[in-house]
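Hey, can you fold this one?
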Amino acid sequence: MEAGSKKTYAPGECYDYQLLIRHILESPRVYSPDREIVYRDQFRMTYRDFFERTGRLAGALAGLGVGFGDTVCVFDYDSHRYLECFFAIPMMGAVLHTQNWRFSPEQILYTMNHAGAKVVLIHADFLPLLEPLLDKLTTAEKFILITDDGHIPASAISFDGEYETLLAGAGPDYDFPEFDERTKATTFYTTGTTGLPKGVYFSHRQLVLHTQAGIISQGAFESVCRFRSNDVYMPLTPMFHVHAWGVPYGATLMGAKQVYPGRYEPETILRLIAEEQVTYSHCVPTVLQMVLGHPSAATADLSRWKVIIGGARLNKGLALAAMEKGIQIYASYGMSETCPLATRANLKYHMLGRPPQELVDTLIMTGLPAPFVYVRLFDPEGREVANDGVSTGEVCLRAPWLTQAYWKDPKRTAELWRDGWLHTGDIGYINPEGYLQITDRIKDVIKTGGEWVSSLDLENLMSQHEAVSESAAIGIPDAKWGERPLMVVVVKPGYENRVSETQLREFLVQAAKDGKIPRYGVPDAVRIVEAIPKTSVGKINKIQLRKLFT
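Sure. Predicted structure:
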């Protein structure tokens, strides 16, 4: 099938059904055209409106010269507009580049040029990020301004239109073409410990299959955080980050009510949960800690809220604190390269019916493979590791939606894909029940005296101290042992003068006496800090921590 072509079918010739993102919209057209999609307290529309606006956006972009295979870069908060871009841009046969606006200016410039962005949609708040880079952009030709209030700010950028004005001037009935399901649909960039950001990309086929598997894993399988069409969905993972974990596609397919919070402000998030009856969200641990730590959370009714935690380990302390508020919570695992779904901590049949607090050690595990996902552990020599709950190896994956390569980067692609398996760079074990537990990143594991200490295990233990809000364990150089663990801790408000670094270390000494960690795993020191540095997607930045403490 030629790119963007319209095929004519002869009598008796079957329809060549391609797994395209456009087909996701057929179910909500029938099931729930009048359900709502909400943006903060500023905008409200039905799915009927959404279908129309998606057509208008495609028409407006086509009017600016966007064609098949062109890349469109988007800078925006989590919004109804972003959802429209999730569909309209790839449905045209163009490529959606979700720009991480938390990147450094150098990273933003590199990723835009590397992706070949032709048209840029940018929220007014992010203009100061882009304006200094304007004369260094090599492919960007057109710029569309996004605003919440319609105000057009003074800017060095010459805009080719304002988002709402362009939509108003375009027709609602854009004729979306059909094309091969393996057509590139989206791209974005992920950072590593060294080197330039790496571009991952996904086809229509991969995104449709990922959407189906996500719905099956949380709708068909019994789940603490079951997600179905009668839920009210609010993402708390940025839409620039792995398509907000792909859940907006699933929520749209089911026709669920969707609520987009814009900037992540705890008070706004808590208000939207109450006013819009939000029942389902996903986020990294730091976002949930931010919400639960806000004064308004003390009186908020969160008993309907289901929260999936990914991006970093869900520690036991945070899980129990959420459960005390009535939140249903469990862990999920994936990475940018995996689109991202790999595993979820669903319960097995014999575990059902028990209180969540009794199952917390299972619910915080990395989890069971999602449908169509193969998980294997390999040692450094490439030998498969036994699933005995003890033996560790590198987590390697196969699934239909894993990125096929790093964009224009064959060297790092060869490191990612070896022997037909995607190598995650994570170390873990699988217990006899089949549950995966990540114990560390290969680059973060602490090697002391020839033994490995899991930084994630140390952090999980530290999280259970009543005074601890957040913690991070790193290895620091040691002349005798090679490395020794150091624990960095943020204490809860009110505990600043009630707990000492020595007392926190004694908590871990007692954990070693109780057999929870080996004695050589007890950090030599605990340091209380005001804040722990984070990456652009809210994960603990251990690279920065090691720079601060070594």
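The mean pLDDT is 94. Let me know if you want another pass with a different chain boundary.
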